[in-house]
Amino acid sequence: MKDQNCGYCMRGELLAEFGIFICELDVSTLILFKEQSHPGRCIVAYKDHVSEIVNISDEDRNAFFADVNRAAKAIHAAFHPDKVNYGAYGDTGCHLHMHLVPKYKDQYEWGGVFQMNPGQTYLSDEEYAEMIEKIKANL
Description:
Layout: H1 7-10, H2 12-16, E1 19-24, E2 28-33, E3 42-46, H3 58-79, E4 83-87, E5 97-103, H4 125-137
Antiparallel strand pairs: 1-2, 2-3, 3-5, 4-5
Helix pairs in contact: 3-4
């Protein structure tokens, strides 16, 4: 199932507004979030356009969380955050996905809830490519 208006489904320009494709996982897509106030922030998006985790099979739910875990391990290995926060939202996008937000002590938003899109830190294409390679090397 795909939604023609969804960046997770259609990729291309819709995805490029907020993220960069990294790779396919077992039942998900791993995406680098362009806004990098939290170095290493990624999104794990489920393969199909479903709104709720209750709309997928137990097997796919377990595989989705295994993908989230795999991505989190890669983020920990690549960027050494003090903590990774996990956020599953979608009031408007309605595509099952989870934000993986590395947090660093004495840095931006430590001790608080992360902003959805702070709009403060964007990188060069080369810097994004370096981050993606670090993540891929640790998957």
